[in-house]
Fold these 3 entries.
Entry 1:
Amino acid sequence: IKVLGMVNCVSTFEKHPYIINGCSELFANVWGTDYGVGVRSAVGMGTLPDNIPVEIEAIFELHEGA
């Protein structure tokens, strides 16, 4: 339903959506475009835990027997 992608980067970097596109494309490949594509936000962060490059937070809606 919704993906929030946080990119560890310097303040002059402006291509956050391009980085998070990889996650969106993966979800679309796994679950198809009808179920794998949802609302998305991509933001830059000055630092992330353990200096990881990207953090993804995702909210899904699951249906039994689908």
Entry 2:
Amino acid sequence: MTPEEQKIVRRCRAILLDFDGPVCSAFAGYPAPQVARDMLARSREAGVPISEDASTETDPMEVLRYLFEVAPERHPESERMLREAEVISVAQASPTPGAVNFMEACKETGRTLVVVSNNSAESVVSFLEAHGLTKLVKGVFGRSQTSPELMKPNPYLLGIALKEVSYEPIDCLMVGDSATDIEAAKAIGVPVVGYANKTGKGDHFRHLGSDVITESMDDIAYQIRATKLHRKLDVNPNEKEA
């Protein structure tokens, strides 16, 4: 990281962390393309019209959006299919290298950590519990079960997360590995770290305006540990100090 990027990471008081990528591979046990195919096949069997373009979609989130558009009355069932697939999948997932180190660094330095994800809250909680990580996270904000339109890049999830941490956007930091994370953070004024875990992502994230680029969760952990928050910064900004 450049010195300016280091400053951006070190000054944050709360962190909004994406799940799929920075924490684990959410579709490790049930590959995303297979989940997408299964969702489409089951919907087709139920009489939902599937377009030729949609039939080749490999992203379950995009499939969920599509099914919501063409068969909104079946959304509870579409959401249930994806939610169950995610829970099955994360049962076989392992933490991303450096993820636990990063989460522990947040705890050790007095920073509030919440997970903000387009994955279901159930799958996130299931993974955190399985790996003994719940104590490191203050809250989990997964996708809305009623409207996939509220998933990132819509800043809706980040907005409710900000209310939970009780800090101004500029005092927080979003860590994510997708364009939707960066777009949502920029839309709501939260500085963002683009976790470039694949070749070419760094340049793309930089083009989107990511404030910080890193290829390592350990790198972010190191910068977090470089600055431990003072006691006065741990006080809820909406409360007066005694």
Entry 3:
Amino acid sequence: MLRAGVIAVQGDVAEHAAAIRRAADRHGESVEVEEIRTAGSVPDCDLLLMPGGESTTISRLLRDEGIDEEIRAHVADGDPLLATCAGLIVASRDAKDDRVATLDVLDVSVDRNAFGRQKDSFEAHLDITGLDEPFPAVFIRAPVIDEVGGDVEVLASVDGRPVAVQQGNVLGTSFHPELTEDSRLHGLAFFE
């Protein structure tokens, strides 16, 4: 039985937990999901997910609770992390905002809310490297990945701008894969 941790300080926690369960089932795996709000649980997790929300708040809560160092250690140990929307911003090396204490586990620079405000939210069917069919991506106040390091693979782009990237065991998206019934991105991050 795999243990999946969903960082639950903010964001679509229940939706990500459901997506991880669907992806595990699709891949013939058993998974137990834990919502993580305090330090001490991350070291017991086989896979980890950091949802969206508000990046300045998420980074502050991770630091205040001591979860930030546990996430860094999780990634350094080679265990998988899926970071979505604000989670991507926090996972990055540079959020271009001094209020965000980034984890620097994904060698990208991110421009917060670059796709626009809430009213500018949109959906797009994306061709994502590693998936056979287009993925229904939901963008809500989405960040833009404006610079990628040499070890980062761009998996998908919108209008020439990266929106899904992978560096080793860390997969980051500008969009919210948990807001659809399609769990293939969670499968790609954790089971393939």
